[in-house]
Amino acid sequence: SPRAVRRYVLCEVLSDDPRCRQCIEDRAVGLAVRDAIGRVHGDYGLACCSISFTVKYLNAYTGTVLLRCRKDSYRLLCSALPFVRYLESRAQRYPCALNTLHVGGTIRTCQKFLIQYNRRQLLMLLQNCTNEEERQCIRKSLLSCSLTEEQSQSGDEEDDDGIE
Amino acid sequence: RRELPDGGARPNASQFKQLVVSALGQLHGEVGAALPVDVLTYEEKTLSAILRVISSGLVKLWSALTLLGFYQNRRCAFRVLQTSPFLLALSGNSRELVL
């Protein structure tokens, strides 16, 4: 069927430099990813992955990035992500790495995964807490982690026809 | 076979190999440039060569050669005469057979 089937790649930005957070914005991340695809897979790979490529969601506080691409080219995209070495924004460049967390067929599956992942991260932070106040904050966040059914989904929902 | 329209300096065997690898690099990136390609024979006079590549890499190699347009800022073109899984088959071109 000619319907555009997409894949959503969830990744996180890891950096030693705390200033890298200010570069986590759609233009900077999109350019960095496309530049990496161009280096690793050439003109063909770049053109292939650019169809329907976009940065769908970003969270600068957690460093979470959700990318969208065609199902036919998600392997090209995923194999190029380790080659992103820095993010550049407003003439500032900071070294970083992209860690792939999950590949899904819909935004909803990536959202569900992210909620579970963030809950696990909060649990780990809870173990490393030094004072009671931090503990209370984290416990409160953990208890509010859930996917509520009345959240409206964006228009890009498609059937998940299995991840190869 | 390579076609160079003017009478400029012709590449030698290693420059030819470098050209093939850089064509792969332009179209298919680092992954393409890392594809193992061997130049089995090369004739500087006729600019003809026999290249060897793993069969899964044929499409990448052929497309990269087709889209290569320049050698040292001079226009050029690659023409693929024959492909075969067997080297012996390349000694004769069945298209030129006179029956």
From TrEMBL, chain A:
GO terms, biological process: rRNA processing; tRNA 5'-leader removal
Cell compartments where the protein resides: Nucleus, Nucleolus
Listed name of the protein: Ribonuclease P/MRP protein subunit POP5
Predominant localisation class: nucleus
Taxonomic lineage of the native organism: Eukaryota, Metazoa, Chordata, Craniata, Vertebrata
Assigned keywords, A-Z: Nucleus, rRNA processing, tRNA processing
Keyword flag Nucleus: yes
Subunit: Component of nuclear RNase P and RNase MRP ribonucleoproteins. RNase P consists of a catalytic RNA moiety and 10 different protein chains; POP1, POP4, POP5, POP7, RPP14, RPP21, RPP25, RPP30, RPP38 and RPP40. Within the RNase P complex, POP1, POP7 and RPP25 form the 'finger' subcomplex, POP5, RPP14, RPP40 and homodimeric RPP30 form the 'palm' subcomplex, and RPP21, POP4 and RPP38 form the 'wrist' subcomplex. All subunits of the RNase P complex interact with the catalytic RNA. Several subunits of RNase P are also part of the RNase MRP complex.
Organism: Neopipo cinnamomea
Pfam families in UniProt: RNase_P_Rpp14
A cellular component annotation (GO) from this entry: multimeric ribonuclease P complex
Family under the similarity heading: Belongs to the eukaryotic/archaeal RNase P protein component 2 family.
Gene: Pop5
Gene Ontology molecular function, alphabetical: ribonuclease P RNA binding
Coiled coil start-end: none
Role noted for this protein: Component of ribonuclease P, a protein complex that generates mature tRNA molecules by cleaving their 5'-ends. Also a component of the MRP ribonuclease complex, which cleaves pre-rRNA sequences.
Automatic annotation (TrEMBL), chain B:
Keywords, ordered alphabetically: tRNA processing
InterPro entries linked: Pop5/Rpp14/Rnp2-like, Rnp2-like_sf
The keyword Aminoacyl-tRNA synthetase appears for this protein: no
Gene Ontology molecular function, alphabetical: ribonuclease P RNA binding
GO cellular component: multimeric ribonuclease P complex; nucleolus
Pfam family, one: RNase_P_Rpp14
GO BP: tRNA 5'-leader removal
Stated family: Belongs to the eukaryotic/archaeal RNase P protein component 2 family.
Protein name per Swiss-Prot or TrEMBL: RPP14 protein
Lineage summary: Eukaryota, Metazoa, Chordata, Craniata, Vertebrata
Gene assigned in the entry: Rpp14
